[in-house]
């Protein structure tokens, strides 16, 4: 009977979210843009990782991720100050328009196969604007749905966005395998296709909302010149960090997600190397771009399951318990599915890992939205985004230093699995103690518990 009630409750939340026209439009904006992200990043990565004309080792792959993620991540908290002073509708539209323009010269450089820092610098801007865009969407979500369905809204938005990214990757892989070629020219055309999706996303975002509809609220928006905003950046970042630190439940989740991403960086690099070499018999790396699409499909399936499981389970047992469960489950999946080093079994580890990643993201985003005041929300999401990217790159460097070029290392995978279990125990102790003290943001029929007693 309880399962039936839970299903009915979840269906009610889903219907409530989908009835919100503003939320539906926001999801469309996100999905279209992230299909473009999949095409662009797939074309960019494929030109380096799976191109027979250019083969990179583990350290080069980690360095590539560092170049593309770290510069924005290091200034990410500062961007939050602007998220809290600029109209988020404008951020959504302008970021996508600029990305559409920048993608084209990058594709031209890929086409020519030139070894130049220019395309990497332009790619930095494109991916940096993507993080800015996604942080703006997260900060805008509470303006289009009611507080009691935020967990369901985050579940749908984040999961459909990630699935759309996987669709973009899959479309690019299919084009490379069937129509185009595994060469600089083929990957350039895949990357260039992203521009159309960025343009459509910008148009939908601009026409779907009023200027102030996505926040920040007029009374909370900061005025003054850009130079004044730059001078205030450091103070604003410190204030955002202090605000997050005062919201202990959200802060613990940010730390738990950062630890997940650190270990995930090792697994990601190991998987890329395994699918490119050992599972591809170490011969033709161009064939692995199609093979690795299976891993993206398994990961997408895990995210989809997480989107349906997380809202009802987190409401029933509490977000902190669910995060502890998926952290520990990831460790078990790596031991059970990863250590045999079988390409089919490894897909099971990819499925569970992505289910856990999406579940933790949904709970973390919801906690940040519940606990943090709107005037600080942009900054705390940017801080979370910085931790999200920096720890992934750190994990990939750890993997590059410890993994062989094939990615096959039982010792490293075992250490990662143990790390996930220890993270589950640590977060369960800290997060559980805080939740029992002040209440859980997600648990309970309303989906949120008041924190006025903090």
Secondary structure layout:
Elements: H1 2-18, H2 21-49, H3 58-83, H4 88-112, H5 117-140, H6 150-178, H7 184-192, H8 194-208, H9 226-246, H10 248-276, H11 288-317, H12 319-338, H13 343-371, H14 374-402, H15 410-438
Features:
mainly alpha, 15 helices, single chain, 80% helix, Growth Hormone, Chain: A, 454 residues
Counted up, domains total: 1
User: Tally of extended strands?
Assistant: 0
Round the mean pLDDT to the nearest integer and report it. Answer: 83
Shape: globular
Q: What is the end-to-end distance?
A: 36 Å
The second-level CATH architecture is: Up-down Bundle
Strand content: under 5%
Task: Give a short summary of the structure.
This protein is mainly alpha-helical and 454 residues long.
Model description:
With 454 residues, the chain is an all-alpha fold. The protein has a single domain (13-438), classed as Growth Hormone, Chain: A (Up-down Bundle). It is built from 15 helices and no strands. The longest helix has 30 residues, at 288-317. The two termini are 36 Å apart. Residues 1-5 and 445-454 have low confidence and may be disordered.
